[in-house]
Design brief:
single chain; 193 residues; alpha+beta
């Protein structure tokens, strides 16, 4: 395995290019938009690629990686079984769109190894697959945490500046509240680390 190691420059970068609602702001429970993700010298996604991502849902899945390794870190990714780190559509209430980005996150003694990068660009798991098999980077746990926290804080600020959500369905409201309870708990834990 060929490792790229951080030497001054950031080996992992995730930024929100733009973030918006797909429907009416008061009813849309998931923010969407374009992301910039760069790993080593490889740009995984960027503006102008006709790619739209579920930003708030992705932020929660990335916050989870600060404390747990995705199941596919040590095995081949199975998009029908594994939860992606970057989602396309759906929200906290209805995940499952095949368009997504996966990568493994391995925690070892203050370092994070990111590997197994795969991007699915169509609704077929067989077509539009971009596999970055040889892309593996090692970064400090601190650098990874700071990148994920900055991303997640930007998402949270977007929601805080939006109109209050009107959720009529009790199950939807309960799921939405559980989403933000987990999000805020993980973010607070990461922010204070």
């Amino acid at each position: 395995m060929n490792f790229l190691e951080s030497e001054g420059g950031k080996m992992f970068k995730i930024n929100i290019i733009n973030q918006y609602w797909l429907g009416e702001e008061v009813h849309d429970l998931c923010s969407h938009g374009e992301l910039y993700i760069k790993v080593g010298d490889v740009v995984i996604t960027n503006s102008g690629r006709d790619e739209e991502w579920g930003i708030s849902t992705s932020a929660l899945t990335l916050l989870r990686t600060l404390y747990e390794e995705p199941a596919f870190t040590y095995q081949e990714i199975d998009p029908e079984r594994d939860e992606p780190l970057i989602t396309h559509c759906g929200n906290a209430l209805s995940p499952g769109c095949p368009i997504s980005i996966y990568w493994g996150v391995q925690h070892m003694e203050g370092e994070i190894t990111l590997s197994n990068f795969v991007k699915f660009t169509t609704t077929s798991y067989k077509e539009g697959v971009i596999d970055y098999k040889d892309l593996t980077v090692k970064i400090s746990e601190k650098e990874y945490r700071e990148e994920i926290v900055a991303f997640s804080l930007e998402v949270k600020a977007f929601f805080e500046q939006s109109q209050k959500k009107r959720i009529e369905d009790d199950d939807e409201r309960e799921s939405y509240e559980a989403f933000w309870e987990e999000y805020n708990t993980l973010l607070e834990k990461a922010h204070s680390a």
